[in-house]
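User: Round two. Same drill as before: sequence, then structure, for each protein.

Assistant: Same drill it is. First protein:
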Amino acid sequence: MPTDPQAQVPQVQARADAVPSSAPFLEIDGATFAYPGRPPAVDGVRWRVGAGELHCLVGRSGCGKTTLLQLAAGLLRPQSGTVRLQGGPVPAPGPWLGFMFQAPTLLDWRSVIDNVLLPVSLQRRPQPRDVERASALLEQLGLAGHAHHHPRQLSGGQQSRVALARAMVLEPALLLLDEPFAALDAITRADQQDDLLRTCRRHGTTVLFVTHDITEAVYLGDRIAVMHAGRVAADIRVDLPAPRTQAMRHEAPFNHLCARVRAAMDGVDGMGAAA
């Protein structure tokens, strides 16, 4: 039988639907972190994320987005303020947490399905249930016929899908993504965004997504946090219907939201919290 993330880390629920809706899944209250000899990378941030929500972080390079992700994951500890997950301290990284970065970082000598199973293999010997879950993820992402191929046989978009399946194979409660689609062409990137939305909604995963692309943030996010100099300068709710469709990109509400985010980044509008 597979190891249950709830059993290993009891303070983190495995699915968003198991979390009381009245309590935030993730709450960052006045968190500050500075690297030695440098101004704070994160400076008094207050940020609340509901269970099952997808929050995007945007901002210019060096504004603290990646450091804030690391605080949320427990990879860094705030020097002041608190970071709480489901009302308690953030536990050590484990099956409750998934990562996906800009480069897929697949292992060329392992098959696609063995790459997906890597997080399991690092903890224990994969069981039939694990292989079933990995195979189901590959099927959901249109890669069922590539399970026994190797990464070098795949396109960039296919490799990105394998990385997403790998991040999801342990059914994490929280998924952190740091510009995972930045190197892809526009059409493949749009397809990957749809894959991400479908997969995370299906599994009830809470997602924090860093991007420099305003249209990507509006398309994916339930909320968008605009960061500037280590602070959340604007918190913008994305009132677009779900499921998202590519046609929305050409409609006025979508373009209005993109303009609001750009204005907040430029300091013209929205530099306070926006409900």
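Second protein:
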Amino acid sequence: MGQSAGLLHEALDLARQEMDAMRGGAYDKAVELAERRNSVTCMAWTVMEESSVAQCRESLQELVRLQESLTRMAREAHEEIKTRLCRSRKERRRLSGYRQAVGQALQ
């Protein structure tokens, strides 16, 4: 296996770990893994020779599929976090209103 193929396999492994981190809600770890994966992928492109492109094609296609899945998961996580934040703000306003009402009633 050439150096570029080995690096692509490492990038695939990092992408799978990143996906597991996303599923588990470990977004900081997912970001760290994504940065490492990007670095490894760039190294693979740098050392890839024209003769090894065909050998690496399957790994590259799998990496594209994983990237699409990761992007979809990140968008879903973003929407979920946004919804939770909005809900939290509404709850905070509601509780603040109760606190004011109780404070006025006790005066």
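The mean pLDDT is 91.

User: Perfect.
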